[in-house]
Structure formats: structure tokens, C-alpha cells
Design goal:
Number of strands: 0
Strand content: under 5%
Distance between the termini: 24 Å
């Protein structure tokens, strides 16, 4: 793998992982257009490093929230719960957010038996084009939804289960994970700030799980060690680009401009259909 290709794929991963345009769908389309199977022939390890890059960007962007979660959880466990609650007896926001993330992650367990089957859709560009059309429809709806008031202090478990089911469905290539989870959260009456924050924090277990599954496959397939320097450059690019993409999503959702990505998704779907037929 060339350094130029690694940089290009790192940019695509960093942008598409967080912007509501489906990273898996775009990497698949790009791979088919370029004709380079970076996830085969020892390059599957690159996919692992791209996931690490996106994790790094989340950890940096939400370092304050993550520190609060760790601190309040530790206080709750080490001090028998006395430090994990507010004066009125309610759990502190950081500790409650951890529980919401855990509950929202549970629906992903349903999809595990179908992991390999879903992976096969990665190479079906017409299917991905159809999924991008659905992503566009979700984004278009998201801007029309009224501002809610739910956050980590008063969000119900049923709300995060629905959001988690959205994340589960979004494992299908072409469906945007962030676009789906944020839209479902807004539909459940959350605030726009919480919808974005929860969506990205919820992605951490999902990305870690995908990372571990890819890591096992990478070692089984073999690692092209000569390409590791290029892989690492791609990982760093994905982390840097992803960091700025997270803040762009925050701004767009709060300003009700998130839905404008719908037109991009529909345009990408149309181009994908044309190229698939022509090529």
C-alpha cells in the first residue's frame, strides 16, 4: 500500500466515520473505484488501525466527559455508592451516562451471529447506494424534529434502547451510524447537544468491538509488515480529520443544518448506481 493511498483512506475514514455519510459505504465505493482491496492480502490490519484512529479522536474530543465518567464510577464503586449520587439520591450524570451507554450497546449483541453476512454487503455497491438513500431520508427528517429536553439526567432506558437499535441497524454498510443514532435520539425527545454527545460516546464500545473482530481476522490473514509505516500514517490522518469532523457535526446539529447532508448522500447514491452500471 502506498503512503498516498493510506492518506486518502485515512481522510475518508476520519470524515465519513463521524459525518453522517457512512464510512463503510464510502470506503467500499472508493475501494471498488480504485480497484485496491486494502482489506485483503495482509491489508486487513490497516482497517484495525483506522478504527484506532477514530477511537483516538473520540477520546480527545470527549476527554472531559470521559474523565467525569471514570471519576464518578470509581467514586461509586470504591465508596459504596455514597459519592455516586446527588443530594436528592439520583445518580450523578457521569455514572448515569455510563449506564446509558452500556444499555444502548446491548442491541449490538443481536447482530453478532450475522456479522459475516453483513460483511458480504460491503462489496455490493448497488445495495450500498440504496442504503445511502435511506441515510439521506433520515438526515432530512432530523432537522424537522423539535428540540427536546432529555439528557443524561432524565433520559429513560427505553429511549437509549431505541437509539441502540438504531446503531444496530446502522451496522449495514451505507447506513450512517451517527446519522441514524442522532436522528433516533432526537425523535425520542432528547436535546440536540445530548443527541450528538451520546451518539459519539455510544460509538466507543461499537468501535472497540469492531476493532477486536478485525484484529482477529487481521492476524489470521497475516500482516504485511512492510506496509505498517503507511498504515500508521493513515491512522494518524484518520484521528486528526475525525477530531475536526466531530466538532463539525456538533455545530451542524445544533444549527439544524444536519439534514443538508441528505443531498450529499442522495447524490453519492446516484453516482454509485451510475458507476456500478457503467463499470
Amino acid at each position: 500500500m502506498s503512503i498516498l493511498l493510506a492518506i486518502l483512506l485515512g481522510i475518508v475514514q476520519g470524515i465519513a466515520e463521524f459525518l453522517p455519510i457512512s464510512s463503510s459505504g464510502h470506503l467500499s465505493i472508493l475501494q471498488n473505484l480504485i480497484g485496491v482491496k486494502y482489506d485483503e492480502g495482509g491489508h486487513l490490519f490497516f482497517d484495525v488501525l483506522l478504527h484506532i484512529g477514530t477511537l483516538i479522536s473520540i477520546f480527545i474530543a470527549y476527554r472531559k466527559e470521559l474523565r467525569g465518567i471514570v471519576r464518578e464510577t470509581a467514586d461509586f464503586m470504591l465508596k459504596r455508592g455514597d459519592e455516586g449520587r446527588e443530594s436528592d439520591g439520583r445518580m450523578k450524570p457521569g455514572l448515569r451516562m455510563l449506564i446509558l451507554v452500556i444499555v444502548g450497546t446491548l442491541p449490538l449483541l443481536i447482530i453478532l451471529p450475522f456479522y459475516d453476512l453483513i460483511g458480504q454487503l460491503y462489496y455490493k455497491t448497488l445495495f450500498i447506494a440504496f442504503a445511502l438513500i435511506i441515510t439521506g431520508a433520515l438526515l432530512f427528517v432530523s432537522d424537522k424534529l423539535a428540540q427536546g429536553k432529555k439528557n443524561e439526567k432524565n433520559c429513560r432506558l427505553l429511549d437509549v434502547i431505541f437509539i441502540g437499535l438504531g446503531q444496530m441497524v446502522a451496522t449495514i454498510p451505507g447506513l450512517s451510524r451517527s446519522g441514524t443514532t442522532i436522528t433516533v435520539a432526537l425523535a425520542r425527545g432528547t436535546s440536540r447537544d445530548f443527541a450528538v454527545r451520546y451518539s459519539f460516546l455510544l460509538s466507543i464500545p461499537a468501535v472497540v468491538g469492531s476493532f477486536l473482530l478485525s484484529l482477529v481476522k487481521a492476524f489470521k490473514a497475516g500482516i504485511n509488515w512492510s506496509a505498517v509505516p503507511a498504515y500508521l500514517i493513515g491512522m494518524v490522518i484518520a484521528a486528526v480529520v475525525g477530531y475536526f469532523a466531530i466538532f463539525l457535526v456538533k455545530k451542524l446539529v445544533n444549527s439544524k443544518n444536519f439534514g443538508k447532508f441528505a443531498y450529499y448522500c442522495w447524490g453519492a447514491a446516484l453516482v454509485t448506481i451510475i458507476l456500478t452500471i457503467v463499470l
